[in-house]
Amino acid sequence: MADLSGWFEPCRVSGAIVEADGVCRAYSRVPVLYPLSLELEGGEALAVLGPNGSGKTTLLRILAGATRPSAGSVTICGQPRQDDRRATASLVGFAGHDTYLYDDLTGIENLRFFCVLAGLKAGDIEVGQALELVGMTAAAGKRVRAYSAGMKRRLCLARILLLQPALLLLDEPHASLDAEGQSLVDGIVEAALATHRAVGIASHEEARVLRLSRRVLVLDRGREVFAGGVDEWKSTRPIWFQEGRQA
Amino acid sequence: MTRVMLGVLSKDLLIERRSKAGFNALIFLAALILVIISFSLGPSSSRLQSVAGGVLWIAFAFAAVLAFGRAFQSETENRSFEGMLLTGADPKAIYLGKVLAATVLMLVVEIVVGLAMSLLYGLDLWARAPALFLVAVLGTIGLTAIGILYGRLTMSLRAREVMLPLLVLPVVVPVILAAVEASQTLTVNGSTSGLWLWLELLAVFDTVFLTAGLLTFESLCEE
């Protein structure tokens, strides 16, 4: 497994890294996420669990700034997102269902372009190191069109490594990855937490994300049905959830 | 801002160079329009030359509409456009980068099509090539400034192939008219009298359209 110790610089944000206050979302007046508030501080990981269509992705997209909430507000490191979305962009690293990659560019070209857009000073050495950490050095010169889903996912992780955001939002990060890739995700989360970053993980791999997290948020049909500690969730988890309705 | 603009420009041109299908389609469409109109007008070269400016810009305008659609095709494949915005990059820089990339692409198409026209229509364009190039640059910037704006607007529509020309072509009519008049002055009359008026008009439209694009592109990027 890649050695990620020392990759992330310490995150020096004091107080909450992300605060969501009454965020909700509706599409054509159909609510997909009911009003929800949460707060995450540095060194905290939140596992977002729930069945398909429960609103996990919508919540992460709202926190990432990819979806505008119908109501409510999001504050990143003390800066309200709606005031200046661009100022908070560099504080959030989002790996969602969409890869945001250009199929006709190579892996390394995608990363270089990302660095230009994000205003990162990362040069070829840093990009090369990030590719090495995610195990993509050999495929870096190939076009993304030829990548498997797992390789694309690894490239998305390399983007997060380069950005070094204060808040990592990972939507189904273990999906499409082999055992080594899944360990890589765990390693990135652990390294981020060790450097006082906050992490939000939406996943169906409940056992895996609960090992990484301190807190749990459970959604069902867009509503918050549980919010608390991991141990509390394990002891009070309802029958329908234990029987695997979430799959 | 310049770094992002140049980054988007080089990315778009690199993608276009690698997926040659798009460039070839633009050339093919423009050349086809020249050939069809030349057939319909008959073999008389004086007749062909008298409408050369208009025919040229009809071909350019249709090729440009095709190019605007393609400019956002790679952005929709993996929702890459959303990814660009999430980096916090300035939407104005993204807009200018895309306008520049589409302009460069169209100018290459226009040079190839211009050469084809000089052969087909028996026109000697070499003597007036610098002035014609200036007309092409000004006219193309006017087209792309609006085309990229509407390309973004229709990017996620299912009927974007239908909507894009319907939205773009009526707005760019003044640019096309000025460019046709300027080209006609150069190709048929062979003189530069009256040319400056059309060039000034094109420059005014370019400024208005680019300003409108810069002011509105960011709000078009909102969800």
Using brief descriptors, characterize the structure shown.
heterodimer, A: 247 residues, alpha/beta, Rossmann fold, six-stranded mixed sheet, 10 strands, B: 223 residues, globular
Describe the structure in your own words.
The complex is a heterodimer of chains A (247) and B (223). With 247 residues, chain A is an alpha/beta fold. Chain A has helices at 56-64, 85-89, 107-118, 124-133, 149-163, 179-194, 206-212, 230-236, 239-242; strands at 16-27, 30-41, 45-49, 71-76, 79-80, 92-95, 167-171, 198-202, 215-220, 223-229. In chain A, α6 links the parallel β7 (167-171) and β8. Chain A starts with 15 loop residues before the first strand and ends in a 5-residue tail after the last helix. Chain B is 84% helix and 0% strand. In chain B, α1 crosses α7 (91-120). The two termini of chain B are 22 Å apart. Chains A and B meet through α2 and α3 of A and α1 and α6 of B.
Structural class of chain B comes to mainly alpha
**What structural class do you assign from the helix and strand content of chain A?**
alpha/beta
Q: DSSP helix count of chain A?
A: 9
Describe the oligomeric state of these chains in a short phrase: heterodimer
Which descriptor suits the 3D outline of chain B? Answer: globular
Anisotropy-based shape of chain A: globular
Portion of residues within helices of chain B: over 70%
Instruction: Count the E strands of chain B.
Output: 0
- The whole-number mean of residue pLDDT values of chain A reads 88
CATH architecture of chain A: 3-Layer(aba) Sandwich
Q: Span from first to last CA of chain A?
A: 28 Å
The average pLDDT value of chain B, as a whole number, equals 88
- Low-confidence runs of at least 5 consecutive residues of chain B: none
Total strands of chain A: the figure is: 10
The separation of the N and C termini of chain B measures 22 Å
Return the domain count of chain A.
Answer: 1
Main beta sheet of chain B: none
